[in-house]
Amino acid sequence: MRVLRSGWLPGALVLAYAATLLHLGAGVGWGDQARFAGYVLGWLAVPGTLIWRAVQGPDRVRPLVEDLTVGVLVGYVVEFPVYVLCVASGHPKAYVTWPLVVAVATLSHRRGRALWTRPVTAVPTWWS
């Protein structure tokens, strides 16, 4: 019952509807959708959000959706130069480790660990 009141149910329904439309309308397989979702979450959203939170400082409390959205953008911005540097150095597949580097860097000290469990505020009503 708590899930129904949490606000996550509408988001989950929208994602399920979008995934079904992609599958039936565009012919995108479920496995391809799952792989892309894993890429966006694991390689862009998590490390990008951690970098974004580190740049913002410990006093900034923002809605989770804002943190994740900007985190994905930061992840895209960081991923490309890392990939170019890895290709230029002769190790093109080494770029897949950049999220691990960010995770280890943030988990190695107290201030970095605080970035993983930062308090977030509710989304403002005017957003809707």
Notes on the structure:
The protein has one domain (34-127). The protein is flat. It is built from six helices and no strands. By secondary structure, the protein is mainly alpha-helical. It starts with a helix and ends in a 12-residue tail after the last helix. The mean pLDDT is 86. Helix 3 packs across helix 4 and helix 3 crosses helix 5 (98-107).
Strand content bin: under 5%
* Uncertain stretches: none
Question: What is the number of domains?
Answer: 1
Q: Residue-averaged pLDDT, rounded?
A: 86
Please estimate the helix content. Answer: over 70%
Write the layout of secondary structure elements.
Layout: H1 2-6, H2 8-25, H3 30-56, H4 64-88, H5 98-107, H6 110-116
Quick rundown:
This protein has 6 helices and no strands. By secondary structure, it is mainly alpha-helical. The chain has one domain.
Features:
single chain, 128 residues, mainly alpha, 6 helices
